[in-house]
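step=encode ok
step=design start
structure_in=
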């Protein structure tokens, strides 16, 4: 176990761009604490060991440096249920139906369980970490029923649900449509061109370029990134000239120094001149945030919704083994600076137009779309 930890630390030191010498010293201090714990607890089981690895890497506070895969990685949760975390409260939904506010899970106060999961989450901002940790509240590595105490209409109710193997839901395909009042809508849930989505989008943009659109809403909520070339290609349709999408800094050991280089977006045809509004939330990460920052910071688009997640690291995945133990670790290779000169990691991109504040608005995906429509119609009156 100690051998595996030391191998991971060496890889992080050789690849990861520490924000400061203090961050490196802090990570090494946590490394020594973990090694000391392993030396004095030889009977620790594998599942607990990987949990400690996860918490150890999370001390870097970098959303792209984290434990990826390991033998005991398996989660169970109640099918069809999810938790919305808002204003320090936890709401249980079945599909889009509110079941109640969660008070306890398996006999423990929900805030205590949330605090445990927050220590596992790799990320820079407290808001992002809290948001991601809330997704694990119903999950457990064991297929045991979940016992809930809920508050509804001033009364406490008990609910027990079976847990089944939890599999992440794949992102939906890209969609486009023409909304009322000549406003275009693009839903880009990922930056991976699995089904030639970009070709389809560009055909739509060619048709739209011949119309007098009032504006275009680009919905990138939930888009965790992917291929930045695709993101930059779409952004190029909204600029006549090449623009700088930001600067990246990265670390090399031979020779040991920090390098930097700008990222460029080249114009694409057809050029779309109408106003652009981007719908964002805390699940916007990585190359998706490069897309948002490039359009927002150059004043080509406004943002509507919530802060973005605040992490872009162009990560690589490395596999580590030590005897029967193995795991893969994702390590960020760069630090991203926005076109406006601000760092992204741990901060995210603040929305120009605030998003939903009520739980009924939060669960309705169309609420923010309608708000963006109203904003375009009020801002750009014909």
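sequence_out=
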């Amino acid at each position: 176990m100690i051998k595996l930890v030391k191998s991971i630390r060496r890889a992080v030191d050789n690849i990861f761009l520490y924000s400061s010498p203090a961050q490196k010293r802090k990570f090494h201090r946590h490394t020594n604490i973990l090694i000391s714990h392993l030396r004095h607890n030889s009977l620790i089981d594998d599942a607990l060991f990987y949990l400690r690895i996860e918490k150890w890497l999370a001390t870097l506070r970098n959303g792209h440096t984290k434990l990826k895969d390991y033998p005991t990685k398996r989660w169970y949760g109640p099918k069809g249920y999810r938790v919305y975390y808002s204003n320090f409260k936890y709401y249980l939904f079945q599909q889009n139906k509110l079941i109640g506010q969660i008070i306890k899970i398996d006999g423990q106060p929900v805030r205590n369980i949330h605090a445990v999961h927050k220590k596992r989450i790799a990320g820079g901002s407290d808001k992002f970490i809290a948001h991601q940790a809330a997704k694990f509240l119903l999950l457990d590595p064991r297929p045991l029923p979940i016992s809930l105490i809920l508050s509804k209409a001033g009364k406490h109710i008990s609910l027990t649900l079976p847990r089944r193997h939890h599999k992440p839901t794949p992102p939906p395909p890209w969609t486009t449509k023409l909304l009322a009042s000549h406003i275009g809508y693009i839903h880009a849930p990922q930056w991976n061109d699995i089904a030639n989505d970009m070709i389809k989008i560009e055909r739509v943009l060619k048709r739209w370029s011949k119309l007098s659109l009032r504006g275009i809403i680009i919905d990138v909520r939930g888009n965790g990134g992917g291929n930045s070339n695709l993101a930059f290609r779409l952004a190029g349709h909204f600029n006549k000239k090449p623009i700088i999408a930001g600067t990246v800094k990265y670390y090399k050991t031979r020779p040991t120094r920090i390098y930097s280089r700008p990222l460029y977006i080249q114009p694409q045809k057809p050029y779309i001149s109408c106003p652009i509004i981007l719908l964002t939330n805390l699940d916007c990460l990585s190359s998706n945030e490069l897309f948002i920052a490039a359009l927002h910071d150059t004043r080509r688009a406004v943002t509507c919704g919530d802060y973005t997640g605040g992490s872009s690291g162009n990560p690589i995945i490395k596999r580590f083994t030590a005897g029967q133990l193995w795991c893969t670790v994702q390590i960020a290779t760069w630090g991203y600076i926005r076109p406006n000169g601000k760092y992204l990691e741990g901060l995210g991109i603040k929305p120009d137009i605030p998003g939903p504040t009520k739980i009924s608005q939060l669960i309705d995906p169309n609420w923010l779309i309608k708000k963006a429509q109203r904003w375009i119609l009020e801002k750009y009156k014909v």
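step=design ok
step=annotate ok -> The first strand starts at residue 66 and ends at 69.
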